[in-house]
């Protein structure tokens, strides 16, 4: 039995590209926006190669290194607790790594405007605003705060770990999502949430986290000698680190424990 006809199986490799992208190659445009990721949610490690390769291939078809923007996966599903091995955090990390490693890219963080009961949350307005900021910076060269805090580095100091960030704007702060799905409670306004810490044994515990300038200092009485921190590392995490521009921090981890 042969391969089904592409007309009856549009997900056949190459079919959608050949029909909907390749014919546009002769035309000029300012940049691309890629809003996808859910279908690859179980392949976050693969996505580290897939997304950069897609960007490289599209640019090759046009012969131009045009700006390429994408939306990081939002929160979804009923999984508010830190997850050691969960599909979606790994894919969000792959998107973050693409932002760091591929030139002329921009990422709209959407971790705060997801819907635990709907893989396609209805709040596209705020996602659009964040994409517009990314476009103003990546495509038009404006010197603006175009992203929420992005993890830069971590340093262990006794019982604490200090994480430093880029894109802090006027400073790190506690924030609230501009939109909440029905039934979703507001996040705390008196403390940071979403941080977990582990020692050499790789057992994760909820952490106390405090803002100190452009850094966050994390600790836990359960972990005397911390080695790693993860933030918003779940399918649908509770997390409230923002910058002064009202933009949420991207999920991150300081470890490489795959």
Question: Helices, strands, pairings?
Answer:
Elements: H1 15-20, E1 32-34, H2 44-62, E2 68-71, H3 87-101, E3 105-108, H4 125-138, E4 150-157, E5 160-166, E6 172-174, E7 195-198, E8 204-206, E9 208-212, E10 215-219, E11 228-231, E12 241-243, E13 252-253
Parallel strand pairs: 1-2, 2-3
Antiparallel strand pairs: 4-5, 5-10, 6-12, 7-8, 7-11, 9-10, 11-13
How many helical stretches?
Answer: 4
Distance between the termini: 39 Å
Mean pLDDT: 93
What is the N-to-C succession of helices and strands?
HEHEHEHEEEEEEEEEE
As for the number of domains, it is 1
Morphology call: globular
* Rg, nearest Å: 19 Å
Low-confidence stretches: none
Question: For the largest beta sheet, what order do the strands appear in spatially?
Answer: 4-5-10-9
Which structural class fits the helix and strand makeup? alpha+beta
Q: How many beta-strand segments?
A: 13
Query: What is the percentage of strand-forming residues?
Result: 15-25%
Roughly what percent helix?
10-25%
**Largest sheet properties:** 4 strands, antiparallel
Give your account of this protein's structure.
The chain is α+β, with helices and mostly antiparallel strands. It has one domain. It is 21% helix and 21% strand. The strands form four sheets. A four-stranded antiparallel sheet has the order 4-5-10-9, with no helix packed on it. Strand 9 (208-212) and strand 10 form a beta hairpin. Helix 2 runs parallel beside helix 3 (87-101). It is globular, with a radius of gyration of 19 Å. The model has no long low-confidence stretch (mean pLDDT 93).
